[in-house]
Each structure stands twice: as C-alpha cells, then as structure tokens.
Amino acid sequence: MKTQTYVLNMGPQHPSTHGVFRIILELDGEVVVKATSVPGYLHRGIEKLAEARTYTQVIPYTDRMDYLASMLMNWGYVAAVEKLMGIEVPERAEYIRVIVGELSRIASHLVAIGTYSMDIGGVTGVFYPFRERERILDLLEMVSGSRMTFSYFRIGGVADDLPPEFFPMLEQFLRDFPSCCDEYDGLITGNEIFQARTKYVGIIDPQTGINYSLSGPTLRGSGVPYDLRKVRPYSVYDRFDFEVPLGKNGDCFDRFVCRIKEMRQSVRIIRQAVEGLPEGPILAKIPKVIKPPAGEAYAEIESSKGVFGAYVVSDGSPKPYRVHFRRPSFINLGYLGELLVGWKIADVIAILGSIDIVLGEVDC
C-alpha cells in the first residue's frame, strides 16, 4: 500500500540549521524521500560590495564570511592579491600566519564538535570545547585587538608583530590542549549514544565526495587524503611535519573524529612554527595605494571547512573589478539533498551537523 508523502520545512529558524538555512523535506512517515536546500537568508553580498572598496578595505568583509575562522578567510583573499601583484611575503609574516591560522582552525573545530554534541542531544559536550576556545580567542585578541572578526592579515604580511606576552600564554595552551582532546574523546567520542547516532549514518563514499568537489574533514572523513597543506603546500607548510587524519567509513562519526585529530595535528604545526619563527619584517614593501596590474589571479588555502579560494580580477584601478570566493561550506552543501534521502528526521540533524557549515560563508 502506497502512503502519501508530506512536506516539512526544517529551518530557517530551527537551531540545528545553524543560523539561517532551510531544508524542504518530503517525508514518507519519518523517512526522507526528497530534500531541497534553500540557502540565501543571510543576504551578505560581499562579492558585490568588494567592487566598491579598495583592495585593503575588502579584508574586513572576509572576516564576516566564516566568522569562526576569520584569520583563514583573510589569508585566502590576501594570497590572491599578493599573487596578482607578485608580492613576496616576508618569512616571519608567513610563520605568524601559520600560527594564527592554525589557532583559528582549532577554534573553529571546537565550535564544530561542541555544537554537534548539542545537536545530537549531549548538552554537556558543548561546554568543554568552548572553554578552550575562549583561551584561543584571548590569544587572537592579544594579537589583533579583536575577539572574533580580526582583520589581522594585510596584503604583503600581517598588521602587527606578535607581542612578547603572547608566547607564554600560547605555550601554556599547547601544553594543556592534548589532554583536553582526551576529555572530548572520553565525554563525546566514546559515548555509546553518540556513536549510535553517528556511526554508519550519512555515508559519503570517496568517489562521490570527489565528484561533488567536497573538501576538508567532510571529504577526508571518507578516506580521501586531500589537504592543500600537503598536496599543494602554500606559505611555509612544506617545512612542517604533520599528518592528515582520515576516516574509514565516510560517516558522521568519522567526520567528527577527523576534526578532533586535526586539532591535535594543528598543535604539532604551531609548536614547530614557534620554534622556527625567524626574525625580520612582518610586512613586504608595498605602495600606499594598491593598484595591481590588469589581470586575474586565483589562490586557495585549506580552511577549517575545506578548500577556500579567492579569485580576483583587476582592471588596474585601486578597486577590484571582480572578486569571487570558492566557499567550502557552500560546495559541501551541494551533496546534502542526495545524502539525506533514505534517512529519518533525527538523522537529518546528525548529517547536517557533521558537514559543519557556517552560513556567513554560504551566503556571501
């Protein structure tokens, strides 16, 4: 006997849709028959705004894209402008970028695992990661003067050097953090209810992940060893020894575990960057009025969500003719509609949370 399907709107007000995101679910009982993603409620318009701003004025707008990893958004954009102008960034600035960039990656992953625990129903799990995130924000505030949208990167380097008091606080954090990851594993990862909700749920096979251009932990959770810091090293990442964590089954659980393991690797990278931090300038010699030659450039970095790219077109004026961003949250959502089919309503929350989207980046 054929049953009648019905439509359920999940979001944009639903807390588990992480801000302003809507999924139109067609359901047969509790089973998803069809899912349609409806982004666009945030109305950012950053790419268009960039056409009316100078190249430097665009930097604060990138902060507001993935606002959980602002430093990494800054990095992707300035890297494209530097490529367009042929600017060589000083070594000290490159090392500082790695330090603050990896701290941002950890801070972003902490929000991901904390909110994911809460999405699944484990409310206690959100408090522990946010405890460490506050310490990272203290460090980044010390460097940039801001606590969330930093605007710290500059075309040709960074805005300011690391203050002396930064290093003792950072060292203390690096000593404490591995045991904090052990706590997350004990509280969340090893929880049998959490595992029941996430293991073998929302499986993405490796070839499908590649075909849909997925990236970051969403792709690496399926066992695909694609991390720009390894496969196409930028900045000074080729000087550091670290591993790329991979999943086995491509399910929600593997994507979660990958993020915890990546935070451990970020600690390794930061330690090496601090030990090898050279002396020297933090900003290349660039003109006061930045007017790149007419042309175009594309640069990409490995953000906390995946591959973040910036495409910049110059017509020779002080303002970009066109700016376009490859946003990993937006790209990773491209497979969500197919991924949800066949799962139940409760699984929709687990699957969406495992992708770890930020709507500021989706709707830019």
UniProtKB/TrEMBL annotation:
<keyword id="KW-0874">Quinone</keyword>
<dbReference type="InterPro" id="IPR014029">
    <property type="entry name" value="NADH_UbQ_OxRdtase_49kDa_CS"/>
</dbReference>
<dbReference type="GO" id="GO:0050136">
    <property type="term" value="F:NADH dehydrogenase (quinone) (non-electrogenic) activity"/>
</dbReference>
<dbReference type="InterPro" id="IPR029014">
    <property type="entry name" value="NiFe-Hase_large"/>
</dbReference>
<keyword id="KW-0520">NAD</keyword>
<keyword id="KW-0813">Transport</keyword>
<protein>
    <recommendedName>
        <fullName>NADH-quinone oxidoreductase subunit D</fullName>
        <ecNumber>7.1.1.-</ecNumber>
    </recommendedName>
</protein>
<keyword id="KW-1278">Translocase</keyword>
<dbReference type="GO" id="GO:0005886">
    <property type="term" value="C:plasma membrane"/>
</dbReference>
<keyword id="KW-0472">Membrane</keyword>
<comment type="similarity">
    <text>Belongs to the complex I 49 kDa subunit family.</text>
</comment>
<dbReference type="GO" id="GO:0048038">
    <property type="term" value="F:quinone binding"/>
</dbReference>
<dbReference type="InterPro" id="IPR001135">
    <property type="entry name" value="NADH_Q_OxRdtase_suD"/>
</dbReference>
<feature type="domain" description="NADH-quinone oxidoreductase subunit D">
    <location>
        <begin position="119"/>
        <end position="363"/>
    </location>
</feature>
<dbReference type="Pfam" id="PF00346">
    <property type="entry name" value="Complex1_49kDa"/>
</dbReference>
<dbReference type="InterPro" id="IPR022885">
    <property type="entry name" value="NDH1_su_D/H"/>
</dbReference>
<dbReference type="GO" id="GO:0051287">
    <property type="term" value="F:NAD binding"/>
</dbReference>
<keyword id="KW-1003">Cell membrane</keyword>
<comment type="function">
    <text>NDH-1 shuttles electrons from NADH, via FMN and iron-sulfur (Fe-S) centers, to quinones in the respiratory chain. The immediate electron acceptor for the enzyme in this species is believed to be a menaquinone. Couples the redox reaction to proton translocation (for every two electrons transferred, four hydrogen ions are translocated across the cytoplasmic membrane), and thus conserves the redox energy in a proton gradient.</text>
</comment>
<comment type="subunit">
    <text>NDH-1 is composed of 14 different subunits. Subunits NuoB, C, D, E, F, and G constitute the peripheral sector of the complex.</text>
</comment>
